[in-house]
Design brief:
The protein contains four helices and eight strands. It has a single domain (35-186), classed as Alpha-D-Glucose-1,6-Bisphosphate, Chain A, domain 4. The protein has helices at residues 2-18, 41-54, 134-141, 148-170; strands at 20-35, 59-63, 68-71, 74-79, 85-98, 104-117, 124-130, 178-189. Strands 1, 2, 3, 4, 5, 6, 7 and 8 form an eight-stranded antiparallel β-sheet that branches.
Amino acid sequence: MRMLSFFAVSVLIIGLLTGCSVTYKNVIDAQMIAPTAKMTKESAYNAVTAILIDEGLDIKMANKDIGAITTEWKKYGAIERNPPFDMYLQLKVRIKELAGSSKQLEITVTPLSKASNRLNSAAFTEESLQFPDEETTRRSLAGRYLSDTEQVSLKGYSMYNNVISKIAEGCGLNISDVKQNLGMVTKVVGPLDM
C-alpha cells in the first residue's frame, strides 16, 4: 500500500513539474452593425458569401432565409512535433436585421480553430481562435524568434482578421466599426506545447 501511495505522489509531482497552466485571449466573435440604408440583408448575405469564396474558403452550409453561412475547415498551418498537427480555421457567419426604430443589420463572424493530429485523424480538438498576445506580436514585428505554435497562431489570426476586414469593407464599413469580442482561456500544457 505504501509503495502504491509513493508511486501516486511521485506521478503527481512529476506531472506538476512538467506541466503548467497558460492563460491566453481567444476570439469569441466579431460584430459589425450596418445601416440598412447602405445594404439589405440579402445584399449583405451575397457580399459576405462572395468575400468568403474570394478568400479561398469553401461554403459548407448556407441558408439565406436565416442569414447563416458556415465555411469548410481551411488549413492555415502545421506544427511539426511528435505527433505533428495541422491547424484549420472555420468561420460561422450570422446576418440578421435588428429590431428597433432604425433598421440595422448585425453581422457576426465566429471563428473556430481545429488542431488535427496528422497521424490519427480521429484525434483533434476544436476551440475558439487564439488571439495573439502583445509580446508575440511585438517579437513578430521586430523579426525576432517565434516558436512554431506562435507562428501558426499568428497565421490563423491574420487569416481571420483579413477576412473580417474584407467583410467590413464589402458592407461599406470601416474596420473601426468592427467590435471584436475576446475571452480568456486557461489550459494546462506540457513542455511540448510551449
